[in-house]
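Q: Can I borrow your eye for a moment on a structure tokenisation matter? Would you mind producing a protein record, from residues through to fold? Write it directly below this note and I will take it from there.
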Amino acid sequence: MPIGDYIGALLTALGDLWGFALIGSFFVMICEAAKPKRRKDEEAEKPGDFALPVMILSLITPLLLFFHAFLTVGATLPGLIALVSLLGGLIIGSSLIGWIISLVARDVGRTLSRAAPILAVLVFALTAYVTWESVFGFVNDFVTGIATG
């Protein structure tokens, strides 16, 4: 079975909201990668008060999507290959698209970069809504297993 069929089966098994969260995460990664380099005469932008928490949320989002898919679909080799190739392709693709935007359209890249923190929080909220049940179940089983020895 080709990898495209495995990815299609993976997306079908995980549902539409997971797919929307994945697309949102892809767009947020494009926005973050689109930040153009500073010119010599430009001042460095100072990070806001919530820069660190937003950056952490932005990093956690793809991990939650991966973790939920891994727990939902199971640890079969074709499912794992499809999942890793899908998420890896999205991460590499979004980085390349953002990089191209930062080179070709500096103003658009700057605007996307400024919108990235707001979008990251919204996409994290959707991802948390989609993945909370499987993550909570895993953590609950893990803690119960440790407590019972």
In short: The mean pLDDT is 88. The radius of gyration is 18 Å.
